[in-house]
């Protein structure tokens, strides 16, 4: 059974273009330089899930004409990854039932704080959701099995995921040797690469490319890019074979 990955967004927390910026990336006419906040959609068999719903979630769902959502999975609680959760209301209306949300206890605490009204049963029209917690154990949503990968975003513990031969890691700058073993054997890996210079909470371009080589990944895709990385066309031309700059709307099929 094949798995389809759609890159809903590939940008950093502020997106690209950046508000008020006139650099050559932010003013580029290339649509690949226009990046919504990072998120992916995974489709396998009869199951559709989304990993992270940032501030652009509604726009991303409209662009991809998504009519069905079997699960919303969160990597961590930063605003650029959870802010759009309110818009699951559209799926509540379509399916006439709550949306299943999967997250760690730490993320659930943030969701209850940020979307407190969704947990008040006496208020009509709020997002309806069922929360399922995970930690390090694998879990299954319909036809999709996810293996959580514990990574660090500076001091913040977050989760990446392995789905079959595919691994997705965002907002990381450290992965332990133990967790790297969960990634080993992946044919495709998506990894954050914020910019060219080093950063205290994200892998930069050099570090991301090194990690892909270290893990012997056949195809690697870079996400969570800032405008400081440079033009899509320029960065792409500089990458080694089978290393790609992902862009919004890109779809890949994995066996």
What does this structure look like?
The chain has helices at 57-63, 79-82, 89-95, 105-114, 177-183, 205-214, 232-238; strands at residues 3-9, 39-44, 47-51, 71-73, 99-103, 129-133, 139-141, 144-153, 156-163, 166-169, 188-192, 219-223, 243-245, 251-254. Helices cover 20% and strands 29% of the residues. By secondary structure, the protein is an alpha/beta fold. The mean pLDDT is 97. Strand 10, helix 5 and strand 11 form a beta-alpha-beta unit. The chain has seven helices and 14 strands.
- Low-confidence spans: none
Strand content: 25-35%
CATH fold-level topology: Metallo-beta-lactamase, Chain A
Number of separate helices? 7
Radius of gyration: 17 Å
**The CATH homologous superfamily:** Ribonuclease Z/Hydroxyacylglutathione hydrolase-like
Distance between the termini: 7 Å
CATH architecture: 4-Layer Sandwich
The helix fraction, in percent, is 10-25%
Order of adjacent strands in the largest pleated sheet: 6-5-4-3-2-1-14
Indicate the overall shape.
globular
Sequence of secondary-structure elements: EEEHEHHEHEEEEEHEHEHEE
Query: What does the largest sheet look like?
Result: 7 strands, mixed
Mean pLDDT, to the nearest integer, reads: 97
Class from helix and strand fractions: alpha/beta
Number of domains: 1
